[in-house]
Amino acid sequence: MARMAESRPLYLGPRLKRLRRELGLTQQAMAGDLGISPSYVALLERNQRPLTADLLLRLAKSYKFDLAEFAGEDSDDYARRLSDVLRDPIFADIDLPALEIADLASSFPGVSEALLRLHGAYTKEQRALAEQRDAPGASDPVAEARRFVASQRNYFHSIDTRAEEIAAEIAKAGSAAEWLRATTGVRVRFLPPDVMMDALRRYDRHNEQLLIDDTLDAASRAFQIATHIAYTSLRKEIAAIVRAEDFASPTATSLVRRALASYGAAAILMPYDRFARAVEARSYDIEALSRQFGTSFEQVAHRLTTLNKPGMLRIPFFFIRVDQAGNVSKRLDGAGFPFAAHGGGCPLWSVHSVFRTPGEVVTQFLELPDGQRFFSIARTVRAGGGTFDRPSVTRAIALACAAEHAPKLAYARSVAAPEPTPIGVTCRLCNRPACTARAVPPVGREILPDDYRRDTAPFGFDSD
Question: Where would I find the HTH cro/C1-type domain in this sequence (predicted)?
């Protein structure tokens, strides 16, 4: 058996193509390095020619990589990805034995890649259809800003790098207020709400003063000072990121600038390298981290989604914040999760029920219709208030990571993983037929008449 596996031709086209793109090479440049023609590189990448042992050795010598790792079975990866895709409920009535999937992946890698791309396009179109607005063509600057941040996996290297330098300078100065006074001549003052005229932060340019609402708690005061520093001392980095994109409206541009300033403020208060080390040491215990860095629970949860620095990556998280009516006011994605675009509306997710237990962390294992599993941490947070007669707002936030990472978190170490709660990204994309919490039928399914039969689920729909 081993000799048969060794003699089997190696078709590693997608892997070769990924390597070339990661190295920033054209097909012509790679062909020159390997001493072959560009057309032959194209044939290799399309799996129309196998990679010979000689070519593998030339690749390893030219680009200094682990030969065994590169030449590992691509078919195993295809089989895993195909298995994930074929768990989609749309294929539920088709018998798909694991052996057939493995045979397809190993014998027909090109067809496997085509199926994966086709399903990806299908999923993308379904999601686009599900989130269509009532006014076709109407722009949504909030969604545009969120898409931009998600496209960067919520990590901005230039901002983090400069923020770490500023944080080190602040540590030497003793405080952010002292650093501002020493470097810019700006004095920080804390004033009552009636003087602030309902502003939390205001920069008095004429008198070179940064005015902060004195009813804010310590974490919020620190964040407002850090936000001013981000808008001023990180202006160049923020402007370069914004200029590189073509946003549809000034509103979208303003929202992106606001998001980048908040990102910069968090990076100043929780410098990347120090925060990443603390995260590991504290096993992602958000409350412990908030006390260590003098920040709020929500600020730490937000910062956890940004830890995507090359060489210092940590667990990738998805973050969502909702109010009691289910409105999403913040959505951050550091992992490319399926509910990044419009998820969070499933009432079976605990983020919607934690309002019954304010301040308590609720954990939950989740499973999407395609079989993907996640671990979720949800809790309420409070904003506003500060005095007896000022209104406050209670919202719920949730962090979710792939279930495989759960053992690294303090929240999942003390209990065995229970059966996951089946949830959907949103009702429009969820094909679970027996969900009693469903609000609307899924896209593309015809509702069955219930003249003679009424199921427990709100909608019965066909399986085609």
Answer: 16-70
